[in-house]
């Protein structure tokens, strides 16, 4: 048998097909143009720094700081602004919680004067909204209580509760003491009956028999 030659000694096979050779001289000018364009773009490109430097700080405005800290005029203006805001807030709140808001019922011109006793003809009639508002405020004033009065009632209520608790505790203590006294009394009577003896030192049986009878009867 014929031995095969090693692959190392085999001749390199030539690639099949007609490969066209690319001219290096033609590709060189194209590469140069590309490089020029890239350089032009790099030089003319606008630089955008999106990230702000953390180290950069605003300059300290000493005048504004001193004005805020020491100026009475500035403090007064601030206080006035806060006051205006609070007043506006309270006003809007009162309008929002007004029960008569949007509840207007049309009335005849002389209705208010005719109902009055005696009838006051020819007098100026007030707006029915105002009349209703006054009535509502009077009712609210009657139903509503002052915070001082509320606090007073609350304090009195707590005081009464404390007194009731103290009375209950005292009552329970007295009952316990009474029961203890009764128990001690019974114990003493029992001891006397059991400890009775004759001159010779023998126990008296009458007391013991009475105790037995009581137990049997129970």
From TrEMBL:
Ranges of biased composition (kind: Basic residues): 184-200
Stretch list, region Disordered: 1-58, 100-124, 167-205
Biased composition (Basic and acidic residues): 20-39, 48-58, 167-183
A Pfam family the protein falls into: rRNA_processing
InterPro entries linked: Fyv7/TAP26
Top-level lineage group: Eukaryota
Name this polypeptide is given: Thyroid transcription factor 1-associated protein 26
Organism: Papilio machaon
């Amino acid at each position: 048998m014929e031995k095969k030659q090693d692959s190392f000694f085999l001749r390199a096979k030539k690639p099949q097909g007609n490969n066209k050779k690319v001219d290096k001289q033609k590709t060189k000018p194209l590469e140069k143009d590309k490089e020029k364009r890239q350089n032009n773009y790099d030089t003319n490109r606008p630089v955008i720094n999106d990230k702000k430097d953390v180290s950069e700080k605003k300059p300290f405005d000493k005048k504004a700081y001193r004005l805020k800290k020491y100026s009475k005029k500035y403090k007064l203006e601030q206080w006035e602004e806060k006051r205006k805001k609070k007043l506006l807030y309270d006003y809007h709140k009162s309008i929002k919680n007004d029960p008569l808001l949007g509840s207007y019922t049309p009335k005849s011109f002389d209705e208010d004067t005719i109902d009055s006793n005696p009838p006051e003809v020819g007098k100026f009639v007030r707006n029915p909204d105002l009349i209703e508002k006054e009535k509502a405020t009077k009712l609210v004033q009657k139903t509503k209580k002052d915070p001082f009065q509320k606090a007073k009632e609350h304090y009195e209520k707590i005081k009464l509760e404390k007194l009731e608790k103290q009375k209950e505790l005292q009552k329970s203590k007295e009952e316990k003491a009474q029961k203890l006294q009764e128990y001690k009394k019974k114990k003493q009577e029992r001891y006397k009956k059991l400890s009775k003896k004759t001159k010779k030192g023998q126990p008296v049986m009458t007391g013991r028999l009475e105790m037995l009878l009581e137990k049997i009867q129970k």
